[in-house]
């Protein structure tokens, strides 16, 4: 499981003779955008790591959604004795 966002972006490499120089056939670059010690950071994801990083970030999203769901159920149960909410 990994925090952060998986980012896919298209970019030109800057080499004048490259196919990307026309501004259309851009290179695809994969990155992970994540907070490190509270600061936003972006790291390059190598081709061989793309699937693994994408899956681990998706796992975190499912984990967060499941935790939010459990908390919602528990809160409703906890508040059941107080029909109008906590005093
Ligand atoms: Zn290029």
Summarize this structure briefly.
Helix content is 34%, strand content 26%. By secondary structure, the chain is of the alpha+beta class. The protein has one domain.
What does this structure look like?
This protein has one domain. The protein is elongated and about 70 Å long. The protein is of the alpha+beta class. The chain contains one helix and three strands. A three-stranded antiparallel sheet has the order 1-2-3, with helices on one face. A hairpin with a 2-residue loop joins strand 2 and strand 3.
- Taken from the alpha-carbon principal axes, the silhouette is elongated
Instruction: Name the strands of the widest sheet in spatial order.
Output: 1-2-3
Query: What is the mean predicted local confidence, pLDDT?
Result: 94
Q: Would you identify the regions where 5 or more consecutive residues have pLDDT less than 50?
A: none
The number of helices is 1
Radius of gyration: 21 Å
- SSE class: alpha+beta
In what range is the share of β-strand residues? 25-35%
Q: Can you give the helix content as a percent range?
A: 25-40%
